[in-house]
Hints:
Layout: E1 2-7, E2 11-18, E3 21-29, H1 36-51, E4 59-64, E5 68-69, E6 72-74, E7 81-83, E8 91-96, H2 97-103, E9 113-117, E10 127-132, E11 136-142, E12 149-152, H3 165-178, H4 189-201, H5 209-217, H6 220-231, H7 234-258, E13 263-267, H8 275-278, H9 282-288, H10 294-298, E14 302-305, H11 310-320
Parallel strand pairs: 1-4, 4-8, 10-13, 13-14
Antiparallel strand pairs: 1-2, 2-3, 5-6, 6-7, 9-14, 10-11, 11-12
Amino acid sequence: MLLAGDIGGTKALLALADAGAVRFERRYRCGDFAAFGALLERFLADAGRALGGPPDIECAGLGVAGPVQGAHVRLTNLPWEIDAADLGIARVHLLNDFEANAHGLDALGEDDLATLQQGAPLEGAPRLLIGAGTGLGVAFVVGRSRSLRVIAGEGGHVAFAPADDLQDALWHHLHPALGRVELEHVVSGAGLARIYAFLRDSGRYAESSATRAALAAGDPAPVIARAALESGDTLALAALDLFIACYGAAAGDHALAVLARGGVYLAGGIAPKILPRLRTGGLVAAFNAKGDFADAARACPVQVVTNERLGLLGAVAAAGRLT
Length: 323
């Protein structure tokens, strides 16, 4: 039996699989545990009760939201460290979370994707996986199936490049507090909250009392998204549109880096939740606004991954290669 995991800054999805079929799966809030070891212990106890006995785990594939250094990883947005040697499993493959996501792309079906731009797909061309959630992940993919190669890194931490006057004003608003303004500072859940605060504090939009009260009681990013999409809150909608423009511009820049005509996939926790607004065209417009290289950007297919189990599917595939 193999253990697979998709471990992010907010949630962890773990599963046990055997002969390619998932036998047991469970989701946990990372904030409920002081360390990954405690979460794994809970999962194994839950699995033992469900399966009628402790699982016999031969290997593991874990996608983790942080830079992997051999058999060790420190999570970027959580005070956790994971060392493969401490897990008590003979063979462990630690992957960057977006590397794991990339390994799951070939397991997706048509129902797992929402198309924003058809593009002009080119068989064998590189693919780009980019996704905003707690942070911003980026990975490039070449090949398919057993020949699939993933180039993962820390693309979310490249510099934020303003594309217009409003984004330039946003950069100047963030710079005093952050110093170097990274892409992840803008294109992430925390980034959406920063954009909202910028538009409010600069006097461009007034904040409604209802949204102010909701923000005081809940996680800012989903509150802002709901206020925009469900209530039509003017400030929240302006913040969401600016976020989408920054997201689209960043995805287009990364796509140009490899001419990703194999496909651009927007993953992560945010894109599926704001899909109705993404469909209105703001993201694609920013994606394609590349001057002399606009035609190259328009040739890249752009799709939203709506299957939240992508990382887990990739971790299962990665662990399967150890058997």
